[in-house]
Amino acid sequence: MLNVFFENRFNARYIMLVLLVVILVFMMIARHNGIGINNDEEELLPDFVMEQVLKDGVVSGTDEGIETMILEWALAAAEHPDEKDVHRFDAFEGALFIGDSRTEGMKFYSGVQNADFFSGKSMNVDKVLKGATVNVGGAETSLQDLLKKNEYKKVYICLGINELGWTSKDSFTQSYGTLIDQVKEAQPDAKVFVELLFPVSAKKSSSDKVFNNTNIKACNDRLTKLAEEKDVEVLDPSPPLVDTTGALKMEATSDGVHINSDYCVKWAVYLARISM
């Protein structure tokens, strides 16, 4: 009976049509539940991400690729932070931030509570490497001891603003590279991010021989090249913080270098979304 059924060309075409419809349905379901990150890896964005993308009305980027879409979604979310969004800092679960006074601002004012911060005023890469201690979770600790005691999923490094005045740029790059090596060795399973420096204000940049946007760009160029050599990711946190000229927004800062509490939130929200 089955042989007769399959020998019939009409029935065979019918079966092929049904199979094709089933495949198309599964593809539509997969596309609805998430979007593939790349062709090599069938990773999907979580449902809540897609819901937020639709909520924020980010649609133009979908035609240009997933990376553009995520950046647009992140910027939209950062420009209008939603305090009721319980997922806004999910990306920082089990993360460590290494930084200076700028990162201290994020620690105190962004609302991020699910990550550790190794940061401090005037912190620089050499101080970190030489065992400088800061308060983490109520105890004074060096970065080296912190990395030994804890296991992190992600490590964000945001240093360089205090090193702009260093005479030897090669020394800065070498020290920064050593820090990356130490982090990777101590946390082999962690994803390591190099955070580029966001600019200073136009007023600050035009009046300071050290803390200016020309020096910051040169520093970021070195960090980008270093990250590529060390096989770690680079993150640019500046889009929600800068004006149309590329300088730090006037309303975001009181001293031209550090950002106020509102913009610390924008920084953290944007960073979380581009590093999911």
Written overview of the protein:
The chain has 276 residues and is of the alpha/beta class. The chain has three domains: 1-33; 36-80, no CATH class; 90-274, Rossmann fold. Helix content is 47%, strand content 11%. The chain has eleven helices and seven strands. It has a five-stranded parallel β-sheet with strand order 2-1-5-6-7, sandwiched between helices. Strands 3-4 form a two-stranded antiparallel sheet. α4 (66-79) runs antiparallel to α11 (261-274). 34% of the residues are buried. Residues 9-14, 30-44 and 59-63 have low confidence and may be disordered.
Helix content: 40-55%
Outline type: globular
Largest sheet features: 5 strands, parallel
Please state roughly what percent of the residues sit in beta strands, choosing from under 5%, 5-15%, 15-25%, 25-35%, 35-45% or over 45%. 5-15%
Number of helices: 11
Radius of gyration using CA atoms only: 23 Å
In CATH, what is the homologous superfamily of the largest domain?
A: SGNH hydrolase
Strand order of the largest sheet: 2-1-5-6-7
Q: How many runs of DSSP E, i.e. beta strands? A: 7
The CATH topology of the largest domain: Rossmann fold
